[in-house]
Amino acid sequence: MRIVIGEDDALLREGLTLLLRAEGLDVVATxxxxxxxxxALDEHRPDVAIVDVRxxxxxxxxxxxxxxxxxxRRPELAVLxxxxxxxxxxxxxxxxxxxxxxxxLLKERVGRVGEFLDALHRVAAGGTAVDPEVVAQLLxxxxxxxxxxxxxxxxxxxxxxxxxxxxxxxxxxxxVVTDGAVHKHIRSIFAKLDLAPTDEADRRVAAVLxxxxxxxxx
Length: 218
Description:
By secondary structure, this protein is of the alpha/beta class. α4 runs antiparallel to α11, α8 packs across α10 and α9 packs across α10. It contains 11 helices and 6 strands.
């Protein structure tokens, strides 16, 4: 896996580089500002970009805008975004933009090496990874939604884990139930949210978006 890191904090940038190389991953370039990040993406054509949300000069959304531009140039580029805080609007837009090969983690997750690497590999494989803390905080902000109100407590648990980007087998392991039970819960979620039978991956994203948008107030 070839990786480019965009992070203006030199200590974290170096720490990430050492961690990933120790795991046998190929960090081909690092950058501390958006222009350097885009130049590295163009030159090295990595599989994954790990990008801080806030980069110079204003430390607001420069990292996100650079990541979006990188994906515009190479739609197959996987992007794992790191943030020190729950950026609520971005968490929603992350999935609204298509969701495949995208992740959003809080920086504190990097210290939990196993979880961080699992999210990185999931994103590189074309999946999604949303930080559990982001999911938990958004759950506390959810506006009323008739469809979501029909979900059982277990179905809401399943939807929360879907929002993290977990597949059926991983959800089953987390909840200590069978794959069949998870499949049944997901079918019920689709039905209660009136999601017509189409591609299941698309319905999963639609279900998660429905929930995130209520949390985001949109």
